Amino acid sequence: AQSVSQHNHHVILSEAASLELGCNYSYGGTVNLFWYVQYPGQHLQLLLKYFSGDPLVKGIKGFEAEFIKSKFSFNLRKPSVQWSDTAEYFCAVNAHNYGQNFVFGPGTRLSVLP
Amino acid sequence: DVKVTQSSRYLVKRTGEKVFLECVQDMDHENMFWYRQDPGLGLRLIYFSYDVKMKEKGDIPEGYSVSREKKERFSLILESASTNQTSMYLCASSQLDKDYGYTFGSGTRLTVV
After folding, report:
1. Does B106 sit within 8 Å of A100, measured CB to CB?
2. What is the pLDDT of residue A31?
3. Partners of residue B3 in chain A, C-beta under 8 Å
4. Min CA distance, A86 vs chain B (Å)?
5. N or C terminus: fewer CB in 10 A for chain B?
């Protein structure tokens, strides 16, 4: 069965610090990869996605993620965080022969201190 | 703007009650999903549907059922609510081409007392 792990449960950073959130998945076949963000009191929103091509993908609000197939990883990065990035971040994976369903990681809560 | 609407933002129900959670999407999406979200566990798939009248069990279907009589509406039913079903319930939809990802509703926070 597919599984997705996220390295950190809770990350606390000061504004302007750099961010990297880890995501690893267990499936060995062709995958689509996603990062979702949930701001306090809001619904989950798509941050960025990878399904083919350049393994470095750029999303909204200055976020980017790098797909490293050999490491089964899809880490999320941002060079300089803002207080408004405080949210919960979820990595999700869809395997091409697993139908339409996504498997989500447990989430990482990011707190950015002003 | 595309939308997934969940009928209730907060619900409080008693143990043993039958509970209906409604989800409607206006994007003509084929796929619809119900997840529950719990701290430290992320999102876990309860049921999903790829078409009208079609339903499939997800990873944690016990104690739940679903109904999809129309393409735009996907209902989650708790047959006899229990306290361990207290959770945030999220509905999502997606196109047949799943590369576009999910669109989520705002969620229903259900408390069973």
Report:
1. no
2. 87
3. none
4. 16
5. N
Residue type, B62: E
Structural contact between residues B4 and B107, judged by C-beta atoms closer than 8 angstroms: no
- Token pair 């350049």 is found at A54
Q: Is A2 exposed, middle or buried (0-12, 13-18, 19+ CB in 10 A)?
A: middle
The verdict on a CB contact (< 8 Å) between A46 and B101 is: yes
Give the mean pLDDT of chain A: 92
> pLDDT band for position B2 (50/70/90)?
low
- Give the pLDDT band of residue B1 (cuts 50, 70, 90): low
Give the distance from residue B108's alpha carbon to the nearest chain A alpha carbon, in angstroms: 10
- Give the model's confidence band at B98: pLDDT under 50 very low, under 70 low, under 90 confident, else very high: low
Residues of B with CB under 8 A from a CB of A: 31, 33, 35, 40-45, 48, 50, 58, 90, 92, 94, 96, 98-99, 101-102, 104-107
**Over the stretch A16-71, which tens digit does the pLDDT of each residue have?**
999 999 999 998 788 889 999 999 988 899 999 998 899 999 999 999 999 999 99
What residue has token string 């059922």? B65
| N residues, chain A | 114
Name which of B92, B86, B89 is nearest B111 in CA terms: B86
Number of Cβ atoms within 10 Å of the Cβ of B83: 9
Say how many CB pairs under 8 Å bridge A and B: 52
